[in-house]
Design brief:
The chain is mostly helical. It contains 6 helices and 3 strands; from the N terminus they run H-H-E-H-H-E-E-H-H. The protein is globular.
């Protein structure tokens, strides 16, 4: 989780002043990806993110460091998809919960 936190903090530092609205959308999208896995751990469609998808391109790929947040969590880039395996999900449930909590805290801090 340390690399995840580091990547998250780097992302926030890079955009909190220059594009706070974009950063918020980016964080909300990261939260959705993580929450989908937490809420549906055995659902294969949530184990992969299509990097060619318009929402991913606009909300994640356009923010330097955002994809690295997912990779630091455990996603692996294969072809044009970021993926986690079912076995990774089952052995990293606590890590996913902690990551979700950290993104929520960061979003809460942005509201203040």
């Amino acid at each position: 989780t340390n690399l995840f936190v580091q990547a998250l903090l780097t992302l926030r530092k890079r955009y909190k002043d220059s594009d706070p609205g974009g950063l918020k959308t980016c964080l909300q999208t990261l939260r959705a990806y993580i929450k989908n896995i937490v809420d549906n751990p055995v659902e294969p469609k949530f184990h992969r993110i299509n990097c060619e998808n318009g929402a991913f391109k606009n909300r994640i790929a356009s923010f330097a460091g955002a994809q690295e947040v997912l990779e630091a969590l455990g996603f692996v880039l294969e072809a044009s998809q970021l993926m986690v395996t079912p076995s990774w999900v089952s052995t990293n449930r606590q890590r996913l919960w902690e990551a979700l909590s950290k993104v929520n805290v960061m979003l809460d801090q942005m509201q203040q």
